[in-house]
Design a protein that fits this description.
The protein is α/β, with parallel strands linked by helices. It contains eleven helices and eleven strands. A seven-stranded mixed beta sheet has the order 3-2-1-4-5-10-11, with helices on both faces. A hairpin with a 2-residue loop joins strand 10 and strand 11. The longest helix is centred in the middle third of the chain and has 22 residues, at 139-160. Bound molecules: 6-O-phosphono-beta-D-fructofuranose.
Length: 338
């Protein structure tokens, strides 16, 4: 049996741990070396691949990025859809394909699997917004990087009596902002799901000032709604490209509080570099589970985290609205503002 693997969409710390796990598990079975397609769906369509035997996947567990490369190429948008992917399956004699991707990639995988191409999805994103799984790998690393950054910005905010506004990723969801903000003791956290009006945010900062704390740190998620935020064209998956909302929020906070307000946009720093131990373990467990499903001839499934377990769920369960921060969790975070 021949198992293929590809990584698609934005990269995420832990992708190489998944590739290592799938390759190693397959090598320990009769399946033999797996085929790794370069740059997402594009590699499958164009026949751009490398053989991943046990040796090829050694030494990559802690490496950031993906040894396969990735792209936002979508066969339904940029190519001829099912036909070109089917031709790729046939050319390489694939009995199963493991697809490591976010919501856009999983939607595409589901359509292809419904059309008879056996696929197993492994969810990945730093945004932690994929439904049907408790958590995604990459999130923990992004939160740790953002937490370290906010910790550092806090000391310089205090020294200069400024407001530091830190923008983090997360697309339309505020998971990274919420967790990094809570972990670093940020004074205000602004997220898209429960958008605190800026006058209320400013009140926390002014109250701190009145009580002797002449600085504040605010974490804002890139998807926080602001009429003044710049609008960018959509990406290849049709998602709105975000980034820079902090530059629209900062002058408003400055006007409302009188504090000099400085912006730091963390951007792709949150996706680069080595994964945390948590993400390495999670990615390894998901990779082994995906390989086991492929070896068992099962497909149409996504491997998911449920409590302490890794379980298969229908891919369709992940193809709904992105998972958002619940109101009660935001309320807990808000208790600590100011
Ligand atoms: O989905 C992951 C993510 O990092 C989002 O948080 C962010 O909005 C987006 O990808 C950025 O994508 P790109 O690297 O294509 O600009």
């Amino acid at each position: 049996m021949t198992i293929g693997i590809l990584t698609a969409g934005g990269d995420c710390p832990g992708l190489n741990a998944v590739i290592r796990a799938v390759g190693t598990r397959a090598a320990h079975s009769d399946a033999g070396p797996i085929l790794g397609f370069r740059n997402g769906w594009q590699g499958l369509v164009e026949g751009d691949l490398l053989e991943l035997d046990r040796e090829a996947v050694r030494g990559i567990l802690g490496r950031g990025g993906t040894i396969l490369g990735t792209s936002r190429y979508d066969p339904f948008v940029h190519g001829s859809g099912i036909d070109e992917v089917r031709a790729g399956f046939e050319r390489h004699g694939l009995s199963a394909l493991v697809v490591v991707g976010g919501d856009g990639t999983i939607r595409t995988a589901r359509l292809l699997d419904d059309a008879g191409l056996p696929i197993i999805a492994v969810p990945k994103t730093i945004d932690n917004d994929i439904p049907a799984t408790d958590v995604t790998f990459g999130f923990d690393t992004a939160v740790q990087i953002a937490t370290d950054a906010v910790d550092r910005l806090t000391t310089t905010a205090e020294a200069h009596h400024r407001v530091m506004l830190v923008e983090v990723m997360g697309r339309t969801r505020g998971w990274i902002a919420l967790h990094a903000g809570m972990a670093s003791g940020a004074d205000v956290i602004l997220i898209p799901e429960h958008p605190l009006p800026l006058p209320e945010a400013a009140e926390y900062i002014s109250t701190r000032d009145r009580t002797g704390h002449h600085y504040s740190v605010v974490v804002v998620a890139e998807g926080y709604p602001s009429p003044m935020a710049r609008r960018l064209p959509v990406d290849d998956f049709g998602f709105e490209r975000l980034g820079g909302v902090a530059y629209a929020v900062a002058p408003v906070l400055e006007d409302l509080t009188g504090f000099e307000t400085r912006v730091t946009v963390l951007g792709h720093l949150q996706r680069g570099g080595t994964p945390t131990a948590f993400d390495r373990v999670l990615a390894t467990r998901l990779g082994v589970a995906a390989a086991d499903l492929a070896l068992a001839g099962r497909h149409g499934l996504m491997v998911a985290v449920r409590g302490e377990d890794i379980v298969p769920v229908a891919m369709s369960e992940a193809c709904i609205e992105p998972k958002g921060v619940p109101a009660d969790l935001y309320d807990v975070a808000r208790t600590m503002f100011g």
